[in-house]
Amino acid sequence: MNHYTSKNFVLTKSIGFLLNKARNIVVTETDAAYKDLDITAQQMGILFSMKSGLAATPFELSKLLSIDTGLMTRLLDKLETKELLKRVRSVDDRRVVNLKLTAKGEAAAEQIPDISPPVLNARLKNFTKAEFEELLRLLRKFIGDSA
């Protein structure tokens, strides 16, 4: 079924516009919440993904977080400059770069579960539990995630 046609398409009512606007709001609010840690929402995603064991290389992080490799390199450079992570060449394959959180990075990552929920909950305060679960279900369906 085609939900949009050339006759009914309105930019500000399109799913792409609304998803982008919602994303921008969450990123802005998340950036503000992480100001004291001197990290951004994107950097938080990297640190928490590493802390959670979801990714250990730049490529894995790029795939997981849907960030192109060029931007990922710049984000990792900033995190390395802030001494939150370090790059370590694989001993098995010198082409592979593994990432490791520093003690400072571990300490920052440990604070993420305390900082992010209030930001998200403030945005979701008018949702019932059923509406929240339905939103998650629909977003997973939209992105093709069957999990």
From TrEMBL:
Domain HTH marR-type: 12-144
InterPro entries xrefs: HTH_MarR-typ, WH-like_DNA-bd_sf, WH_DNA-bd_sf
Record flagged with keyword Transcription regulation: yes
GO molecular function, one term: DNA binding
Domain of life: Bacteria
SUPFAM superfamilies for this protein: Winged helix' DNA-binding domain
Protein name: MarR family transcriptional regulator
Species this chain originates from: Dyella psychrodurans
